[in-house]
Amino acid sequence: MDYTVMLPAAGSGRRMGAGENKLFLPLAGKPILVRTLSVFQNDPDCAGIILAVRPDERERIREMLAAHGITKVTAMPAGGGERQDSVRACVRAFMEAGGKDDSVIMVHDAARPFLSRRVIRELAETVREHGAAIAAVPSKDTVKQVADGIVESTPDRSTVWLVQTPQAFRAGLLAEAEEKALEEGFIGTDESMLVERLGHPVRVVGSTYDNLKMTTKVDLAIGEALLKRQEEME
Ligand SMILES: Nc1ccn([C@@H]2O[C@H](COP(=O)(O)OP(=O)(O)OP(=O)(O)O)[C@@H](O)[C@H]2O)c(=O)n1
Ligand SMILES: C[C@](O)(CO)[C@H](O)COP(=O)(O)O
């Protein structure tokens, strides 16, 4: 089941505090960006990768792709100030290159190198039928809504899911949701929020707890430990 992946990689890694884009940091010897790209490079169902980059990093990334045998990147549009702008640049590049409204596209954070092929497959199958599907895990913790340091409410935990990427959509649906958000000045923290605003139902596919986003130094340490365990099991 073919899909094309939109990979926003144009962040600054402020919370990682590395002084450069965190995607260049090594995770057990390989840059985080290369680890994430390799998942899609090695997935026969992935027809292509569109990578949003910071213009001043384009050349360095090009060299990295060549050095690591990543051949599926078909476009590298300039990312924007917000993650959502970077994803929109990818979707526009996809459509301009002849992408069809009913093509399956996935959006995946370049900073999440541990996604599983099983989740990608289930998302692709679900989106073919329903148009929109996201990866998520049930919350293991009790969640509170808090205002000014005071608990306002406690949502029923059985209804709370922690959302990850990939998030998969029919291309035309996501493009419409993004353009509406742009027109209305709405900024969401994921693509699902934009599609929800169109009133389109978004399905949830059960993912794995190790599909972590490398956001802070603690995540890097956990990532190293996960890779070590994987190597020991192989
Ligand atoms: N303007 C932006 C912001 C983020 N991203 C990408 O979106 C993904 C998830 O974002 P996040 O983890 O927040 O990355 P950063 O923005 O780099 O980190 P921070 O918010 O700590 O600065 C990353 O792959 C990041 O490169 C992007 O392409 N364009
Ligand atoms: C899209 C996302 O990864 C879902 O958890 C997340 O919302 C990205 O958030 P960030 O603000 O870029 O860390």
Quick summary of this structure?
This protein is α/β, with parallel strands linked by helices. The protein is built from seven helices and eleven strands.
Textual characterization of the structure:
This protein has 234 residues and is α/β, with parallel strands linked by helices. The protein has one domain (3-135, 163-233): Alpha-Beta Complex (Spore Coat Polysaccharide Biosynthesis Protein SpsA, Chain A), CATH 3.90.550.10. It has helices spanning 32-41, 58-67, 83-96, 117-130, 171-184, 191-196, 217-233; strands spanning 3-8, 26-27, 30-31, 46-52, 73-75, 104-107, 132-138, 145-147, 150-153, 161-170, 203-206. It has a 7-stranded mixed sheet, sandwiched between helices. Strands 2-3 form a two-stranded antiparallel sheet. The protein is globular. The ligand C[C@](O)(CO)[C@H](O)COP(=O)(O)O binds next to strand 10.
List keywords for this structure.
single chain; binds the ligand C[C@](O)(CO)[C@H](O)COP(=O)(O)O; alpha/beta; binds cytidine-5'-triphosphate; 234 residues; globular; 36% helix; IspD/TarI_cytidylyltransf_bact; 2-C-methyl-D-erythritol 4-phosphate cytidylyltransferase activity; two-stranded antiparallel ribbon; Spore Coat Polysaccharide Biosynthesis Protein SpsA, Chain A
